[in-house]
Amino acid sequence: MPFLEALSSIAPYLPVKVDIANGQILWPREVSFALKAVARGPNYSDVQSGESLHELIMDMRGGSELPEMCKEAGKGMKIFFDRVISPVEAKTFFARVLPSMASLALKLPALLQEQALLYGSQSGVNVPLYLRILSSQNSGIVFLSQELVASLLACAFFCLYPSTIRRNNDLPLINFDLLFRYLFDGRQEQAQKIMCIVHYFERVTESMPCGMISYERKVLALEQSASLGLAQTLPDESFWRSCKTSLCDFTVMDEGVIEDVGSIALQVDFANMFLGGGALSSGCIQEEIRFMINPELIAGMFFLSAMSNNESIEVVGAERYSRYEGYGRSFTFGGDFVEKDSRDGWGRRHTRIVAIDALSQVGEDQFMMSLILRELNKAFCGFLDLSITSCHSNLMDLQADAKTKDGTNVMSTEVQRTAKSYGVIDGENLENDGGVHFGKDGATKIPIESFLEEFGKSKVVNLEESMSDDSNKMDLQVHAEKFHMYTNTGNCIGIATGNWGCGAFGGDLQLKSMLQWLAASQAGRPFLLYFTFGDHHAKRLQEIVDWIRQEGWCIWELWDMLLEYAKRRIHRQVTVNLFDWLLPKKQEGTSADEPFL
Known about the structure:
Blueprint: H1 2-7, E1 17-19, E2 24-26, H2 29-39, H3 42-45, H4 50-63, H5 71-84, H6 87-106, H7 108-114, E3 140-145, H8 146-157, H9 164-168, H10 177-181, H11 188-206, E4 212-219, H12 222-227, H13 237-241, E5 249-253, E6 265-271, H14 286-293, H15 300-303, E7 311-316, E8 322-325, E9 332-336, E10 352-357, H16 369-383, H17 387-401, H18 413-421, H19 427-432, H20 448-455, H21 470-486, E11 494-498, H22 509-522, E12 527-531, H23 541-551, H24 555-570, H25 578-582, H26 584-587
Parallel strand pairs: 5-12, 6-10, 6-11, 11-12
Antiparallel strand pairs: 1-2, 3-4, 4-7, 7-10, 8-9
Helix pairs in contact: 2-4, 2-6, 4-5, 6-8, 6-11, 16-22, 17-21, 22-24
């Protein structure tokens, strides 16, 4: 069976045993016995405290021939379930939630078998979609049901995954033992992270969501570059200098956070090269917080190895379950959050998250040409959507095929409904800038609520029905199906980002914001929302953006200016920051210049 043969690549990483010859996926006997006992409830399993939970996990790991878990993890479990949460909450968890989690874990073999149904069955897509290891330089996509994700995460909670093989193959650790281990170290934000995870399990065990999630490794590789009409190597200095594309709209968001934008933009995860970063250990900044409030992101850590310089990871459909407040040591679980976003034709929530990892602690070297290119191409890889070109092409073909000889539209009601449901923009505007404008001048500081309201006013195509020819109906049906595959992607989806690679990573916010603008523009995105998080280095960002837009610069002009500044900065020929150097009034060397050192 092709699926089981393909599953052999991931078998060593699974907590279950895969018997390719007999076509079976089974739990080790001792583990199966223990999980079945827990599934029957605490009166049968006697697991009703943090200490007894740790003992259960140790027994199951022994049954799977895994090494013992650190004692600190057990102490952390005791602290969380016996001290952090109330006795009522602990009783509910051990009586209702934990048994359901054990049942979820037991379903893993059956859910893995169901993945066979995804093999080449989605809208004629002849690529594998089932669970497998996506290693570096191997682009691909995996579709998982939310139930399978919940089962995989339940196994991670019970710490049933082998770890050594993961370290040897550049895969992040997936077991939850370190979450509890660092709680023992007195990190109070760690308890809040665990509360997000427990809340996720409370939600899915009470009512299992029935959607899908896609996890994609995107590779800006030679073959891909050639197909895009680019050079036979990664985009270099000359490539970016040749880009005549206009810069996309850029709006500075002084309020709100990236996850507030919902489905209108690709949301940037300021990632570690290992997906998730310190989410399952002691980290608690942007990426880790996102993985706690959207725990389904964690499943990607299971099969996506570390990212190289020309790679990014995009996840579509990961649901948010928790509210939160604070950041770092002040992070706190804020209660339940219910997604209101609809699902696309694949059954995914419209939430799109892309992980791109920035260089860390390179100091002044970040102004070197090679490192600037690395960051620009990394962002370009993350922001690029290869379906954009195809989507436009299909829309143009669809509209062209829908015209009679006198030029009137003749789309069927079904196609019209499909187009409207995905917010298709008028074809002429779509080819230019998507027909979507926000703010009075396209670059106004506005709160997130106003932006979302204005975005919703985008012009939708007006298609008429007068279809009669059966052959034309069939052609339109084919085009509609092709369009349906792209599920609201393309030029109507912008970028939501912020201080990527700054803060703890030591990146220069002014340089990184301009690089992200270049990448989003060349990737064909209609707008970029930049969330400042109150960073004082971004206080003049909107002023710079407004001036550059007023001057009518395109990509190559901003690129040349960045390189000129970087060259002078490396040779210590400038004493002011990038924004002060860019503005004409600052080039005159007035006393208002702000030194960068």
